[in-house]
């Protein structure tokens, strides 16, 4: 891949993040928090309809921004339009010079692989190895199969930065999916999401993954800036 000139990431809140490159501004799963849109080609992604991942407020941004497109999961009740694109799993879309591939989830909606200015960004949405205390053996086996199967679809891609859940509600299993993702796919950077404002979870995960070739970004606050 060609060298990207720079990439500036802002962790907004929960799973909401932005990625700014030389020519593009990408928004993932915004539902609340402080966000400042840029005067660049903008693509807004929503992985699924859960209210902690999607807020219809984002559709009003097009009234103030001339060069904005939306890529939404098909479970979101919005009709396609000239700048609104609806995706199901395992589809491809090209907007400007940005290549977008949709993958599935182990919960609702989609995950996204986005190639922008020579780098692959993976945004998991609610794709995770969800193991809850109350789950029985059969549920755990089915979840493991579904999760590992989805990760196997990504093995041919070199991932520069991944946004992936580390949900503390899973208790001792909070790191199961993230660890497997890193071990299998070895992204250069891993940014935790979906940790419900429990920022210490990101520090704990980084400690667990000490020695990994992947750099784990520790988050301390909303609207934290990461330049990579």
Can you characterise this structure?
The chain is α/β, with parallel strands linked by helices and 228 residues long. It has one domain: 4-Layer Sandwich (Metallo-beta-lactamase, Chain A), CATH 3.60.15. 15% of the residues lie in helices and 30% in strands. It contains three helices and 14 strands. It has helices spanning 137-152, 176-185, 200-208, and strands at residues 8-13, 16-20, 24-28, 41-46, 68-73, 84-87, 92-95, 98-103, 111-116, 119-123, 161-165, 189-193, 215-216, 224-227. A seven-stranded mixed beta sheet has the order 6-5-4-3-2-1-14, with no helix packed on it. Helix 2 links the parallel strand 11 and strand 12 (189-193). The chain is globular, with a radius of gyration of 17 Å.
Q: Could you give a short description of this structure?
A:
This protein has 228 residues and is α/β, with parallel strands linked by helices. The protein has a single domain, classed as Ribonuclease Z/Hydroxyacylglutathione hydrolase-like (Metallo-beta-lactamase, Chain A). It contains 3 helices and 14 strands.
The total of beta strands comes to 14
Order of helices and strands: EEEEEEEEEEHEHEHEE
Shape: globular
Broad structural category? alpha/beta
Number of domains: 1
CATH class: Alpha Beta
Low-confidence stretches: none
What does the largest sheet look like?
Answer: 7 strands, mixed
Q: What's the name of the CATH homologous superfamily?
A: Ribonuclease Z/Hydroxyacylglutathione hydrolase-like
Total helical elements: 3
Average pLDDT for all residues: 97
Spatial strand order of the main sheet: 6-5-4-3-2-1-14
CATH topology: Metallo-beta-lactamase, Chain A
Strand content: 25-35%
Distance between the termini: 16 Å
At CATH level 2, the architecture is: 4-Layer Sandwich
Which range best describes the helical content: under 10%, 10-25%, 25-40%, 40-55%, 55-70% or over 70%?
A: 10-25%
Radius of gyration: 17 Å
């Amino acid at each position: 891949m060609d060298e990207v000139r720079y990439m500036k990431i802002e962790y907004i809140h929960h799973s909401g993040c932005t990625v700014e490159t030389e020519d593009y501004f990408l928004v993932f799963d915004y539902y609340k928090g402080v966000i400042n849109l840029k005067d660049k080609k903008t693509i807004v992604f929503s992985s699924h309809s859960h209210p902690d991942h999607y807020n219809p407020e984002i559709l009003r941004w097009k009234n103030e921004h001339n060069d904005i497109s939306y890529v939404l999961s098909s479970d979101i009740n919005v009709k396609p339009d000239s700048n609104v694109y609806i995706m199901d799993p395992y589809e491809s879309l090209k907007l400007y010079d940005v290549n977008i591939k949709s993958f599935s989830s182990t919960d609702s909606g989609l995950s996204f692989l986005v190639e922008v200015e020579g780098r692959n960004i993976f945004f998991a949405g609610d794709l995770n190895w969800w193991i809850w205390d109350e789950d029985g053996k059969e549920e755990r086996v089915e979840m493991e199969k579904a999760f590992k199967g989805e990760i196997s679809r990504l093995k041919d891609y070199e991932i520069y930065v991944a946004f992936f859940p580390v949900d503390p509600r899973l208790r001792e299993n909070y790191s199961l999916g993230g660890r497997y993702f890193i071990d299998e796919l070895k992204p250069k950077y891993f940014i935790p999401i979906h940790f419900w404002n429990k920022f210490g979870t990101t520090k704990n995960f980084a400690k667990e993954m000490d020695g990994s070739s992947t750099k784990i970004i520790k988050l301390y606050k909303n609207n934290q800036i990461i330049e990579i």
